[in-house]
Amino acid sequence: MTSTILDPALTGVYTLDPSHSRLGFTARHAMVTKVRGGFTEFEGTGRLDFDNPANSTAEVTIQVASVDTRNEQRDAHLRNNDFFDAPTYPTITFKSTGVEQIDETDYKMTGDLTIKGVTKPITIAFEYIGASQDPYGNQRVGFEGKASLNRSDFGVNFNAALETGGVLVSEKITLEFDVSAIKSA
Fold first, then answer.
1. Contact 122, 110 (CB under 8 A)
2. Which residues, in sequence order, are CB contacts of 14 under 8 Å at separation 6+?
3. 78-137: per-residue pLDDT in tens?
4. 115 vs 89, 99, 121, 138, CA distance in Å?
5. Which residue, 37, 73, 81, 123, has fewest beta-carbon neighbours within 10 Å?
6. Does pTM surpass 0.85?
7. DSSP β-ladder status, 91-101 and 57-63
8. Sequence-distant (≥ 6) Cβ neighbours of residue 150 within 8 angstroms
9. Calculated CA dihedral for residues 91, 128, 14, 121, nearest 10 degrees
10. CB 148 within 8 Å of CB 181
11. Which of 74, 66, 67, 65 is nearest to 30 (CA)?
12. Are 10 and 132 within 8 A, CB to CB?
């Protein structure tokens, strides 16, 4: 049974479950369509405080080389210096600096996002989906979130002009999070 009620008993330390979570992104390609991708290797922990959400924290580390857009040629390009420069900057990190509860299920988490050695603040809108105990006795919580950023703010500058006007890759990137986390014993 899943609950969307904020139960203070859920307060505690949680570990991100990569096999049941998605950390993804969307970028406009050639001004006409969206390309979706994500990262397959990441880890994260958080302290959730359901009595006082402002005391909640989160840290996430993403392995850049795990980028996956379902196109190996594009993924290889994303890993090189035109985009993420995975050999020089092997990780993307996020460390929260604040949490604000908007209503019963909606939150804003602010924090420092580091890509290619550039750290900038970002705000992620999260919706608390609920909590449940899985068949193995693990207490789980789920969140979905979104944020937007300008990739060039992080030194991800590659682009190509199109003959018809516009550019190959949008500056605006939408980050997408589907998170399942397991409470530590």
1. yes
2. 45, 46, 47, 48, 141, 181, 182, 183, 184
3. 899 888 999 999 999 999 999 999 998 999 999 999 999 999 999 999 999 999 999 999
4. 8, 21, 11, 33
5. 73
6. yes
7. antiparallel
8. 171, 172, 173
9. 40
10. no
11. 74
12. no
Superfamily of structural domain 8-180: Lipid/polyisoprenoid-binding, YceI-like (2.40.128.110)
Q: What does the block give as tokens for 137?
A: 């006795």
CA separation for the pair 126, 129 (Å, rounded): 9
Q: One-letter amino acid identity for 93? A: T
Helix (H, G, I), strand (E, B) or coil at 32: coil
**CA distances in angstroms from 15 to 103, 107, 124, 161, 181, listed in the order given:** 24, 19, 19, 42, 5
Dump the DSSP string for 46-85: EEE-SS-GGG-EEEEEEEGGGEE-S-HHHHHHHHSTTTT-
